[in-house]
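Support reply, case 0932

Customer input (verbatim):
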Amino acid sequence: MKGCVLFIFIIAFLGMGAPSWADKTHTVKKGDTLYRISKKYKTDIGTITQANELDSDKLVPGTKLIIPSGASPVIQPFVDAKTGEEAAQTYETTETKKETPEEFLMFVARQTLGIPYKFGSSSNRATDCSGYVQRVFSFMGIHLPRSAREQFNHGVSVDKRNLSIGDLVFFRTYALFPSHVGIYLGNNLFVHASAYAKKVTIDSLETPYYIKRFIGAKRLPGFDELDLSGAAKIPGPVLR
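Our regenerated output:
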């Protein structure tokens, strides 16, 4: 009888404690970013932010973060009906290795597809276009201003025919000034927080709506020089 009770107790203990028993704890240090932490523990940013209910990528030294154990959840990419098969093919063949800034950017884009759109927001629960761009690059230690209009004044202008992964693409939508921004992913595709789709999604620059409203692209200095720890090799908190 005692053996039976002990067996039940062990099963109950394992059943209740298994999800968190093997979790790790990371104490935030000065200079830490979600990118660095995710790379150190071989997990993804989404898993860390969800486990700790983070609404911001700003980390305070001394804060203890839970690093969930086990495999990271697989987030399927959203495929817009208008861009369809091209977007699906691009992301189904993208590996989740993050050895270069371009690979890491593709990885983050895939993990954040489907986040709801909300004007004025910039969090893991909802975001607008410029808030999304700002947060994505902050994961790599690149700090951009908040609005699309301000972001348009950063970086070096790039011809549409010479776009590279990581370039910012800008549009005039509801105003004469740059009012919408996304991140170029290659193959004429860009990821952005879309008010029309009401979520973070992928669209094509060849879509008539975006062809008509495209006003330019900017390349951020130092993006291709980022090291594997996610820190830019050029000084200063803002890239101009």
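We compared this against your earlier run and they match. Two observations from our side: The chain has two domains: 18-73, 84-225. The chain has a mean pLDDT of 75. Please reopen the case if you see a mismatch on your end.
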